[in-house]
Sequence to fold (333 residues):
Amino acid sequence: MRCDKAIEKYLSLDNNQSMPLSLLIHIFVCKQCNKEIQQLHNTFSELQKPPYAISLESKIMAQIMLHKSYYQRVSSFNWVAAGIIIVLSIVSLSYSDTLQWLSLHFGNKLLVPLYLVMGCIVSGYIGSYVATHLKKLQAIAHNIKSLL
Amino acid sequence: MTAQNDEYIVQQIIKGNQELFAIIVQRYQNHMFTMGMRFFKNYDDAADFTQEVFVKVYNSLASFKGLASFKSWLMKIGYNHAVNKLNTAKNNHPDEYNDSIDNSPNPETQVMHSELHSILEHAINSLPDAYKVCIDLYFFVGLPFKEISHITGFPVNTIKSYVFRAKQQLRHALKGTIAEEYHEM
Fold:
């Protein structure tokens, strides 16, 4: 491979692309190309730093902190809807044919595990709500305290 | 914590660690500001642009699927926002957004801080405007041709040829400069 071709090949490489074998062999035997490619490599590496240095971090973070955290991003409508669905499911279960059929087969023994499951669902719902709205609930509690 | 990769940090932010977004801002604010300077050519607009993009990125984090690198995804949001903002500004104030560069000194940030950057800037200035940002994305952000093409919509081969041309100009310009002497040391 000729020297000019070798340099051309080096210049046409993509970011993070490894050198082809033919080029590696050439720079192994050609000291001049080896030196030039090393210089170019250092130059291109140095250019990886952007030319402008700025510090907007505090301004940007101030704006970001005004937004709700992702973890709390379930809308109030969804919380209310989920609560209504849970309550309706529990109420309608008492009137369902399935419950009557299960009661006929298993008797009153079924009621304890059934109420346990319902209790877990309701506790899970309330627990999730409290965990994700802790700050809001604290603020409400603080307001109530100050009113009293 | 700063050594964590971007994707891990994004996961943590989505889980509720909002303040970790500061690490993302630290890592990429200079890249985004450089893109802003490329499009808007003045400090204030580039700074506003940078802030707007990061807020937009924060609000879109949940839609990051990890199909491309986070850096590439972030730059695509920045690029699209810049193009839209520039088009809107040009429609509203056609006289304001010509190609003149705001040369007002700003000691905090007017920092084409090395001879290398000046040489590259000179090489970039010979390119058509639309492609200048490709060179920025290649050199300063370190993205491969394919990702630059994905962000800008320009063909890979066109980007390749402009980057090649810029590298050749750099190579010629570097001969006998301080930069060459520096690397010889």
Q: What stands out?
A: Chain A has a mean pLDDT of 84. Chain A touches chain B at residues 7, 11-12, 14-17, 38-40, 42-44, 46-57, 59-61, 63-65, 67, 69-72 (CB under 8 Å). The radius of gyration of chain A is 34 Å. The longest helix of chain A spans residues 111-132.
